[in-house]
Amino acid sequence: MSFTSATPRWADVYLVATGRGISVCGDVLATFALALVLQEAGHGGLAVSGLLLASTLPIALLAPLAGRLADRVDSRTILVVVGLAQSGVCAALAFSTHPVLIICLVTLLACGLALTMPTISALVPRMVSRADFPRASGIVASAGQIGMLVAPALAGILVGQTGQRLPLLLDAVSYLGLVVVGLLVRTRRHGGTERAKAEAAFRLRDDRTLLVMTVAVAAVVAGVSAINVFDVFFVRETLGASTTLYGLVAASWTAGMLLGNPIAGRLPERRRTVGTVLFLLGGACAAVLVGGVVAQSAWWLVPLWMLGGVFNGALNVTTSVLIADRVLPEAHGRAFSLFGASVQAAGIVGFFVAGPLTEMFDPRVLVVGAGAAGLLAALACLPLVRFQPPPASRTTMRDEIGDNVAA
Q: Where are the transmembrane segments (predicted)?
């Protein structure tokens, strides 16, 4: 198996969850704080769009390299070195004012995130048994979502009260917390033997189940990610909501994700399939579709967006379990990195498509269309689903290689 047979190391799970929360919060905090700084300095939408692109594009482009490094370099080395580098980048950002320099530094920050994300994801299966992994994955996912939930509000408060420098210096200090986590976590991935590395060569197309899952998730994300552009116009202009209510609507999706994580952890093993992934994708899209059709006030969106978030949170845990269970331990970094990159790339496509559409159509039509497009994408993948267990050769190889857990 690809999970440790030793006593679960829950202390390590919570430490890694803390590291994930710090990493995500730091990246989002820096992006939002700098977006506010650029906007207040009079820079146009091109600069802000460039900033947002710089914070996501490296994760997609560096996936093959980042995955290999996560599998072949000591996990402690990655977390410590990258954490120190990100801290230095944030310190430099605190004193940067030129938009081109800011975008370049944010790109470096995202390069660090491209490395730490698969490293942390690949560590978790080594800490717990197969039965405990859904719960552990939910804990780590929740930490990242809390970071995403807290960061935008924190950025707004700090930039509004103190300006650019303090939030980014605090962000630099927070990345040192990732260094501490890397030093304290007892579970480590050292990379396997040369034989194990050769046999663990990972190609997504070799596993039909993971390929269908990745295509389905990416297709839905491409359709639905445009919601991030549409909803500000839908909530603020069509529904006439205040900025406070808009923030509540935006936060309700993430709050729902926090509820969805433990729900997925309680799913029986026979329900952790690509069919379940498609059902969860469809549920999230249906919530968006219904919200776009029926909402006459922004308050209607709060429970619907929370419901969509529940499906989204359960989806994150279910996909993590499927990847960890079907891929050799030595290739976990590559598998998680490629899956994450596919989702990021799809989100970027949706972001670019959304911009011109906002100038052409009514916001309600766009929200309904995005929800319907995502639902149709999930349904279109149903004929591709073929339930199959991991190949016998992989199960045998897992038993032969062992779990590579360091004390």
A: 12-38, 44-65, 77-94, 100-124, 136-160, 166-185, 210-233, 245-264, 276-299, 305-324, 336-354, 366-385
